[in-house]
Design goal:
CATH architecture of the largest domain: 3-Layer(aba) Sandwich
Largest sheet: 6 strands, mixed
Strand order of the largest sheet: 6-7-8-3-9-10
Order of helices and strands: EEEHEEHEHHHHEHEHEEHH
Bound molecules: adenosine-5'-diphosphate, magnesium ion
Shape: globular
Radius of gyration: 18 Å
Structural class: alpha/beta
Helix content: 25-40%
CATH class of the largest domain: Alpha Beta
Number of strands: 10
Strand content: 15-25%
């Protein structure tokens, strides 16, 4: 897809949990080669929006399109195979496995469960391909020196980058990151930010959920702000941060 053309289109997406409307008719797009930030206070509906896009949660109403095709009814595995990869808000890294093995799981998996078994039962030739692809992604994210280390021995900032490498191993056109900067130190946030800019230059579309407005400000091309499930503002980061509803949501006034 050429830069700027919409890869993901979320149209009036709605998710109700009983009486609670977690995502309230939200619409936005994620274009190729762009970073879109999805921000908002805790409980705003950011993770649920991710789950709607990746098929982990089903839409109450509305639609999600990928390159113009509706994803409605597709399983998380099918959606991952289309080229949409994600990380989770709470790390899913396997601490007793090496960085290489963790990333190889992603190469096989394309974002779903049952990988494990698949990797264990993979033919040797297939396994070699997975490991080669995993090694390539580890180089791509700048962790070449950590390939054979146990994932559990890495610093949090490096673990986050391993998770990104694992998502990249499925060769996605779109990367969805759920709070990748949470809990990171300043220097680690800087490195993460640089990596995401590099991936954008390579043409990857990124949807970035963040609680921390400071982190997304200097990074994203477009910002979408949710509050209590509702889209309250969107646009260029510098404009959005001035928006009275955004100021109110963040200051709690
Ligand atoms: P965010 O990621 O922005 O912090 P979430 O999308 O996790 O917010 O949650 C939005 C709202 O939906 C919250 O009020 C949360 O408690 C509720 N919620 C999320 N997942 C579920 C679920 N599986 N069942 C019931 N309520 C949920
Ligand atoms: Mg969340």
């Amino acid at each position: 897809a050429s830069p700027g053309s919409p890869l993901i289109k979320v149209e009036k997406a709605r998710k109700a949990f009983g009486g609670l409307v977690a995502v309230n008719d939200v619409s936005f797009e994620v274009p190729a080669g762009r970073i879109v930030g999805l921000i908002g206070p805790n409980g705003a509906g950011k993770s649920t929006t991710f789950n709607l896009i990746t098929g982990i949660a089903s839409l109450t109403s509305g639609s999600v399109y990928y390159q113009g095709e509706p994803l409605t009814g597709d399983s998380p595995r099918q959606i991952a195979r289309h080229g949409i990869a994600r990380t989770f808000q709470h790390a899913k890294i396997l601490p007793e496995m090496t960085v290489l093995e963790n990333v190889a799981l992603g190469a096989h998996l394309r974002g779903s469960a049952g990988v494990f078994k698949s990797l264990l039962h993979a033919e040797r030739a297939e396994e070699a391909t997975l490991l080669t692809e995993a090694a390539r992604q580890i180089e791509r994210v700048g962790l070449g020196g950590y390939r054979d280390r146990l994932a559990g021995d890495l610093a949090l900032g490096q673990i986050r980058i391993v998770e990104i490498a694992r998502a990249l191993a499925a060769d996605p056109a779109v990367l969805l990151l759920d709070e990748p900067a949470a809990g990171l130190r300043h220097g680690e946030k800087q490195e993460l930010s640089n990596l995401l800019k590099k991936l954008r230059e390579e043409g990857v579309a990124i949807l970035l959920v963040e609680h921390d407005m400071g982190f997304v400000m200097g990074l994203v091309d477009h910002l979408v702000v949710l509050d209590f499930g509702t889209l309250i503002a969107e646009g260029k980061p510098a404009d959005v941060r001035q928006h009275p509803a955004v100021v109110a949501a963040y200051l709690g006034t």
